[in-house]
Amino acid sequence: MKTSLVPALAVLAHWSQLSLAQDYPFTEEQKQNANRTLSVGYVVYHGYTILDVFGPLQFLADLSWPFSIELSVIAKETGAIHSRPPAHHGPDGMPMDMSHMIDAQIVATHTFVTAPPLDILIVTGGIGDLTLQEQNDTSVEEFIASRFPTTRHVLSVCSGAGFLARAGVLEGLRATATKGSWAHVTRHGKNVTWVPSARWVHDGKVWTSSGVSAGMDMMVAFLRHVYGDPVVNTSVNNVEYAPHVDPSWDPFSVVHKVPGANMSMAMKELVGPLEVYP
Amino acid sequence: MKTSLVPALAVLAHWSQLSLAQDYPFTEEQKQNANRTLSVGYVVYHGYTILDVFGPLQFLADLSWPFSIELSVIAKETGAIHSRPPAHHGPDGMPMDMSHMIDAQIVATHTFVTAPPLDILIVTGGIGDLTLQEQNDTSVEEFIASRFPTTRHVLSVCSGAGFLARAGVLEGLRATATKGSWAHVTRHGKNVTWVPSARWVHDGKVWTSSGVSAGMDMMVAFLRHVYGDPVVNTSVNNVEYAPHVDPSWDPFSVVHKVPGANMSMAMKELVGPLEVYP
C-alpha cells in the first residue's frame, strides 16, 4: 500500500461508518470496492470534447477522497492533448478549420503501450474521431480490443461508442451514443442493438452514454453501482448536481429527430437531487 | 483581425443567417457581441474545483466556433495548476491531507501581471481558497479589485464568490454562492445581500452561481444574455444538457440547510431542453 493512500483509507473509515449507520444493503462487490484501489483509464485524443472528460471526472475525483482511485490518462503519445479539433472534413465533405476555437489541454500520462492494468476504461467522444477515421488511425480501437477482456467495466461518452463499435466489443449488446451525431456513430458495429431513446445504456460490463453532458448522469449511476448510493449521493449533492436518474430519459433523441425515438416522451421530465443518507 | 478568425466569422455569418431568419429580437449589444472578439479570463489556483472551470468552459468553447472568443487562464504563476487541494485545515481546525486524490491540471497562460484586458472575468471556486486564506495570500482578491472597473462582466462559481466579497466588489449587491460551504463564504463582505435560495444571481455586471454544477446553468443564462437565445440554445442542445433556467431553483439550499432557504420549494422541479430555433 502506498503511504499516500493511508489518509484516504482513514477518511473511508469515517464514511463507511456513516454508511453502515443506516443499514444500507451494500452488495459484496460494493464492500470490496470500498476497500481496494480502482485503476481508471481515460482514453483521449486531439479533438476530445471537454465535458466528456471533465464532467465524469468531477465525480471520480470527489470519490477519490473517501475511496482509493488511481487515474491514468491514455493517448497515442504522452503529453498535452488538445480539445481543439484538428483539421477534418465536415458531414458535407467540406474541410473544417476549427483552429480559432478555445482549447483545453489534458495531459496524457500513459500511451496505449505503457498504460497500467485497468479496472475501468472510459472512452470519451469528440470531433477528433473524424480526423482519426480520415487518417485510418485505429490505435484507439486496437487498445480497446486488447484491453476489453481484462477490464471490469468499459464506459463510453457521446461518440466514444463509435470506437467501441469499431473495436468489436459491442457485438450482441445494447448501446447508445450521442443523438446529435446518431447516424455517424451507429453505422459502426455489425450486431449492435442501438437504443435511440436513452440517456445511457448498461449491458454486461459496458456502459454507453448519450452526448456530452449525459456522461455525468451515466457516471453518477455507474458510481452508485460500484460503491452504493450513500457516499455517492452525498458527493453528488456537494456538487449541487441534480442527475437524470432514469436511463430512458432522453428528450434530445426527440430534439435531434433520431429514427425510432420515443416521440411520446414529454420534453420536460422530473429531476431532482438524490436522496440524502444522514 | 487575425487570420485565424476568418473561418470563425465565415461560420458566424451562417449562424447569423439562421438566427435572423426567424426575426429573433436581438438587442443592439447582442448584435455587437456577435461581431467582436470577447476576451475571457478564468482565475484559477491550486485546489480549484474541476467542474467549476470545465463545465462553463464547455459552453464557451462551443460558442467560440461561431463567435470570436479568446481565453486566458490566469493564476499567480503560469504553468500547471492542480485541482488536487494543497494541504489545509478543515472546518474543525484539523489538518487535511488530500494528496492522494485524483488531479486534473489546467495550464495557466497568464499571471495576474501579464493578463490581457478582459471583457469577462470568471473566478472559480475550490478548496484551495482555504489554503490561500491560511497563507494570507490575497493576490486573487487584488487582481479582481484592480480589474473590476474595466471588466464588462464578472462571474463567480461556487466559493469563488468569497474572493469577490473579499475584493470588495460585491458591496451593495445581491449575490449567492455554494450552499455546501455557505457560512464559510458568506461571512465575507460587509454590505452584501446574500441570497440563500438561488441557482445563480445576476446583479449589475456581476453574476454569482451556487456550487460547482450551478456554474453551467449560470453560464448558459449568461451566454443567452450576451449572444441571444438562438445560437446558444442550439449549442446547449448539442451538449445534450437540460439547464436549470429558473435562477430561483435551488433545492440544494434545502439539502444543505442554508438559513433563510425557501423551505417550501419542491425538491423536484421541472427542467428540460431549451427551445429550438429551426
UniProtKB/TrEMBL annotation, chains A, B:
Protein name: Class I glutamine amidotransferase-like protein
InterPro entries reported in the protein's UniProt record: Class_I_gatase-like, DJ-1/PfpI, INH-QAR
Domain of life: Eukaryota
Pfam families in the record: DJ-1_PfpI
Keywords assigned: Glutamine amidotransferase, Signal
Signal peptide: 1-21
Residue ranges occupied by any DJ-1/PfpI domain in the UniProt entry: 98-224
CDD domains: GATase1_PfpI_2
Keyword Signal: yes
